[in-house]
Every structure is written in C-alpha cells, then in structure tokens.
Design a protein that fits this description.
Elements lengths: L1 H21 L10 H19 L3 H24 L1 H7 L9 H18 L16
Helix pairs in contact: 1-2, 3-4, 3-5
Length: 129
C-alpha cells in the first residue's frame, strides 16, 4: 500500500508541476516556475520510491517527505514572508491555499508511512471437524 501511495502521489506531483508551468495561478495556488520544478523533482523521487525502492525505504521516504511538507505548511502560517520567498511569490500574496495543501500532503505522507504496506495477514489454519 505504501508503494502504491508513492506511485499515485508521484504522478499527482508531476501533473501538478505541468499544470504549474501552464497555469501558475491554478485553483488559487501560487505555482511559480521554481515551485513547479520542486513538484517535478518531488514527483520523480516519489515514483522512484514507489517503483524501485524497498518497502522499508519507501516507508522512510513517506515519513521524511511527510515531515518536510508538514513543516512547510506550518512555516507558511508562522512565517508567511519566508514561505513567499521560498515559493518565489510576492510577500503580500495570500498563500493560505498553498499552506493548507502542504499540510494535507504532509499528513497524507506521514499516514501512508504508517500503513502496513505489503504485509500479508497470517493465514488461519483450516479446521477439520
């Protein structure tokens, strides 16, 4: 399940990057070229962990990536001018939508890291009467 999550999120992040290059104000987000490049790289890394990495490595990736996104979301509310500088947005721009999305991504990646991905439930022995 963890590796499937990485694959799905990898594709979503790559699509978000492409949308950001075409329409930087999509859904009220502020997708600068730099922000889109970060999404493109993040998506490629997530796909790597979804397709080629071991389950334990994909789990660690989800925890680390989730923590990073969670910190970015919190930072956007605590220090909006710093976050605006990181995202190459005007300091006066309202980044609430970006911050909420980063928080949601952080929680989703962290939660995915705690899934039991790939583990099989033990088989119950057959009872004979």
């Amino acid at each position: 399940m963890i590796k499937i999550f990485c694959k799905v999120m990898g594709f979503i992040l790559i699509v978000a990057a492409i949308i950001g290059f075409v329409n930087p104000q999509f859904l009220g987000l502020h997708l600068s070229a730099w922000h889109s490049v970060i999404h493109l790289i993040s998506g490629a890394v997530a796909l790597y962990f979804g397709y080629l990495a071991s389950l334990s490595t994909a789990r660690t990736f989800c925890w680390v990536f989730g923590a990073v996104y969670l910190i970015l979301g919190l930072l956007g509310f605590i220090a909006p001018s710093l976050m605006a500088a990181i995202l190459q947005a005007q300091p006066s721009v309202n980044l609430a939508a970006d911050n909420v999305l980063h928080l949601l991504l952080g929680v989703a990646f962290l939660a995915a890291g705690f899934l039991r991905g790939g583990a099989q439930l033990p088989q119950q022995p057959m009872r004979t009467a």
